[in-house]
Each structure stands twice: as structure tokens, then as C-alpha cells.
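Let's sit down with a protein and look at its sequence and fold side by side. We need material for that, and I hope you will provide a protein of your own picking. Once you have written the record down, we can walk along the chain together.

***
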Amino acid sequence: MTKKKSATAKTAIAATASTVRNDQQSRKPKTKLARLEAMLRRPNGATIEQISKSLVWQAHSVRGAMSGALKKKQGLTITHELTDDGRRLYRIA
């Protein structure tokens, strides 16, 4: 025979599983703009090519989102610098 678990034990297990699931979901940004902002907040920044590949956007869409949604609407300051190979690294200052 098997013993039945008490209701409090089931509730405790469900609460723990729910907490772990919520922590995992909260780490990853949900929208593409949030993912773009997260990429620009990295210490190394991101190039247009990296962002467009990650978000499955075209380069002009990435530049438009940075200019419109992040700079104008959210008021963030986005800086860029040229790397040795001629690419631009974008970061949120």
C-alpha cells in the first residue's frame, strides 16, 4: 500500500515548483525591445549584426528601434564606438 500525501505537503511542493518556474521566466526579457535593451546593457555592448541575428530583424529595423523606442520614447543614451575591424559597438550609457 502507498501512503497518501497530506494536502499541506502537496501545497508546499506546488509552491516551490511555482517559485522556481517564476524565477526562470523573470530572467529572460519577454519582448524584443526588452531583449534589445538587455543586449545593449551588456558590458561589451552589441553590433547591429549581432542584434539583427538575435531578434530576427533587418538592420534598418534595429537602428529604428534604437532611435525611436529607446532613445526618443524611453530617453536612454546610446553610445557607439568603432572596433578595430570597422564595426560599431552600441551600448547604453
Remarks:
- The helical segments are 7-27, 32-41, 48-55, 59-73.
- Residues 7-27 form the longest helix (21 residues).
